[in-house]
Specification:
This protein is α/β, with parallel strands linked by helices and 155 residues long. The protein is built from 5 helices and 6 strands. Strands 1-6-5-2-4-3 form a 6-stranded parallel sheet, sandwiched between helices. Helix 1 packs across helix 2. It is globular and about 45 Å long.
C-alpha cells in the first residue's frame, strides 16, 4: 500500500511516473517467474480530463493502453464503442474513471484523486481492489487534503 501526496497540477505526471515504474518492473519480472503482468495494472481517476492526460502521455511513451474515454489515437470510436471494447481481460494497462470501472476489480490498482474529490468517490475507488493468490498492490496519488489527512491519522 503506497500513498503519495500530490497537487492537482502534478497528479497526471505523478501517475505517469508510477505506471512507467510498474511497467518497467513487469518487464524485468518477465525474465523470471511470471508473477506480475502489465495487464493487472489499472489506473482509476475521478475525472476524464486527468485520465485523458495520463493516457495521452503513456501512449506517447509506447505503453499499451485500454481506456474508457476518447483519446487522440482513437479513430472513429464513440464513447459507447470504447466502453464495449474495454475489458478487464485485455493485456494492456487500463485507465478508467472510477464510475466506469464499476463491477470490475484489479489486484494492482492506482487511484488518482483530485483536491475537490468527494470522500465517497475515493472509497468507491478503493473498493475496486481485489485479492489475488499473488497478492495485491494499491497505490493512491492524492491531491485531496481531507483524504490525505485521514490516511495520515489512520494508517
Amino acid at each position: 500500500f503506497v500513498w503519495e501526496d500530490s497537487t492537482d497540477s502534478k497528479l497526471s505526471q505523478n501517475c505517469v511516473d508510477l505506471v512507467q515504474r510498474l511497467v518497467a518492473d513487469d518487464r524485468q519480472a518477465a525474465h523470471g517467474p511470471a508473477d506480475v503482468s502489465i495487464s493487472d495494472i489499472v489506473v482509476l481517476v475521478d475525472s476524464i480530463e486527468v485520465g485523458r492526460n495520463v493516457a495521452e502521455t503513456l501512449h506517447q511513451k509506447r505503453i499499451s493502453l485500454a481506456t474508457t474515454f476518447e483519446c487522440s489515437w482513437h479513430r472513429n470510436l464513440t464513447k459507447r464503442d470504447l466502453k464495449l471494447e474495454f475489458s478487464s481481460q485485455r493485456a494492456d494497462v487500463k485507465i478508467s474513471t472510477i464510475h466506469s470501472y464499476k463491477g470490475f476489480g484489479s489486484s494492482r490498482l492506482v487511484v488518482v484523486v483530485r483536491s475537490q474529490s468527494s470522500t465517497k468517490i475515493v472509497f468507491a475507488a478503493l473498493s475496486r481492489i481485489k485479492g489475488s493468490p499473488l497478492g495485491q498492490s494499491l497505490y493512491v496519488i492524492s491531491a485531496n487534503r481531507h483524504v490525505n489527512n485521514f490516511y495520515k491519522r489512520n494508517f
